[in-house]
Amino acid sequence: xxxxxxxxxxxxxxxxxxxxxxxxxxxxxxxxxxxxxxxxxxxxxxxxxxxxxxxxxxxxxxxxxxxxxxxxxxxxxxxxxxxxxxxxxxxxxxxxxxxxxxxxxxxxxxxxxxxxxxxxxxxxxxxxxxxxxxxxxxxxxxxxxxxxxxxxxxxxxxxxxxxxxxxxxxxxxxxxxxxxxxxxxxxxxxxxxxxxxxxxxxxxxxxxxxxxxxxxxxxxxxxxxxxxxxxxxxxxxxxxxxxxxxxxxxxxxxxxxxxxxxxxxxxxxxxxxxxxxxxxxxxxxxxxxxxxxxxxxxxxxxxxxxxxxxxxxxxxxxxxxxxxxxxxxxxxxxxxxxx
Length: 339
Ligand code: SAH
Ligand code: SF4
Description:
By secondary structure, the protein is an alpha/beta fold.
């Protein structure tokens, strides 16, 4: 039997058509499960008996369980969920003026191994399935009795190292028959796997793309992010230009501010030269401390100076306010520790 939550509209249609049903039956099933939130097949009134019978022999509904919930001073909420193989994943809910935003985990651990990141301290154990990503959204919606309006794929893991499931997940949360979250309310963040950025461009969704840049030259970037040894800044920017050409969308460059490492005026200048002419804006993030790691976030005044320098040099930028750092729920602090 197959887990319904691992299906996309396309794969479900295929299965149904192969078994003598119609494509619209897939849409009906999706609507029951994701719009009406029912998994009781008997209560799905517009399905034929034959389809219900087929469904019950072919599909089952998986689930995940809540282990803990922590709420930070700013109401940011971190959940720890248990998967069917007893592994744990973290999901973070943030309350914004514009809505409820969920930070979703895509892998257990991460193999990219950025030197500053807590998530990367744990080697990748495995990819999450579409179902396990869907459950993070569905569970938080059910537990909080809310609708998630925005999804960021910025939890543990490198989404483009789990490309297929990530694309399926995006399809499902975006589909009008699924969770109907607007593409522009979905953001996927990558450490810069250039060929996958191109593949993502070809996927041609109006989803936001964020790229973790963090350094304006190859030497420093390779020190911080060893993925840069594989895909240099040149290659990365070439793939970004391809993405912009193909989708006509603006990209976000994320730039962590690490005190004394990448936050000098010379770095701001090099950064602005590097990305000048690219349809982008820079999201500056003050680094959140990770106990085991030696890095420190830039002071407020250095962060502000860096930000002002980018603006002065004609680069659009924002200086992001962190949420949830007191409960290790902020960016790069996720590690699925159960304490
Ligand atoms: N693997 C993807 C997405 C998850 S990380 C990526 O790297 O883009 C989400 C963002 O948090 C990335 O920009 C990452 O560089 C950043 N990050 C990692 N550790 C951090 C920390 N300690 N403080 C602030 N941001 C951090
Ligand atoms: Fe992985 Fe992203 Fe952390 Fe790098 S920053 S180790 S890619 S989760």
